Amino acid sequence: MKSAIGQCIELSLFGESHGEAIGVVIQGLPSGIRIDEAWMGKQMEKRKPKGKISTQRQEADVPEIVSGVFEGRTTGTPLCILIRNENMRSKDYSKTRYIPRPSHADYTAEIKYLGYQDYRGGGHFSGRITAPLVAAGAIFLQMLKAKGIEVGTHVAQMQELTDAPFADEEAELRAQLLSLEDQYLACLSDSTRTAIQQRIEQAQAQGDSMGGILESAVIGMPAGVGEPFFDSVESRLAHLLFSIGAVKGVEFGDGFDFAAKRGSEANDGITINNGHIRTLTNHNGGINGGITNGMPLRIRTVVKPTPSIYKPQPSVNLKTGEPTTLQIEGRHDPAILHRARVVVDSLIAFGLADLLTERFGILWWEGERPCGED
Ligand SMILES: Cc1cc2nc3c(=O)[nH]c(=O)nc-3n(C[C@H](O)[C@H](O)[C@H](O)COP(=O)(O)O)c2cc1C
Ligand SMILES: C=C(O[C@@H]1CC(C(=O)O)=C[C@@H](OP(=O)(O)O)[C@H]1O)C(=O)O
User: Fold this and answer.
1) What is the predicted pLDDT for the residue at 245?
2) What's its job (predicted)?
């Protein structure tokens, strides 16, 4: 029953939504990585609930680094980040203690943990546990940036509303990733952003919720990263992305659209560009044989509509065994994807940092550690 992942670098999560604190322990980090707490704070802002399109639970979400950093740089020993819970309203959950919310983890956690789980606010299964992932992700994203690797995600689709696609051309894609940096509801097109915002607000007003698709891109990944068979780049990243509550699908490159294509439409012709091997198209999303080929990675993640909705729903009282109608109270996100996009970036960055360390060794990050500076 571990909440841990990683080969060379290990991430381990702890905490519950209504407990004292939540957090992450990272082991196997290179020493000497500069920690930019101000930038970590900016990343946390992207996940924080804001406005009508998010839960009304307001938390300061200030990451406290309690070990593993000395004089602003990683020591290389376990790094622990703590985030205090302050704004809980546990009474929202007491009336419905034995009435599981459809499509949340209430029933499955009850069975697995024999009723001993902290059921308040989804406990360890709450989307809240993604806050420490974002704090940790800020470290991995900065490690990648120092190596010229950029990761970014936009809200690509909600129902029939679709955002502009990521560009194939690398300089244009880089500019697009940059444009997403300071957005809360991150879209490439202003009109799509407005329409998606309105669609979520509409659902919120009706006590309902929305899902959608997040599209991510990574540029600057060197070719040759990834392990054969079980530790392909796809397997490792999908494992991480499926750990995010409400994620129900992940695809790479053209993904499920390959079903409609012939080989002649799906293959990426190989070319040479300024001495670098590149492909003319990128249907395969930068990965062949589970190994990066030097092209941008393209990943799509589908996030289901938030399970906690304010409409009456059928459930069962687990104490009496009687069918019942559930009417929830409390504060919930009418959509998750705008808050989850930074979680997706964070986990992709962690997965790639782990794979890069496996490929090149921990000293590959050495350039990050200018000896004698400071
Ligand atoms: C950032 C984030 C916020 C979330 N907010 C809510 C919420 O307010 N209410 C809710 O019912 N589920 C929320 N979820 C989703 C649940 O945590 C998730 O659906 C639940 O753990 C069950 O997992 P599953 O949907 O993967 O089966 C959120 C998830 C994330 C990642
Ligand atoms: C608090 C956050 O989101 C929570 C995620 C969540 C869930 O079930 O995932 C349920 C709600 O928790 P509570 O009922 O305790 O307020 C959300 O508010 C957060 O993400 O920081």
Assistant:
1) 98
2) This reaction introduces a second double bond into the aromatic ring system.
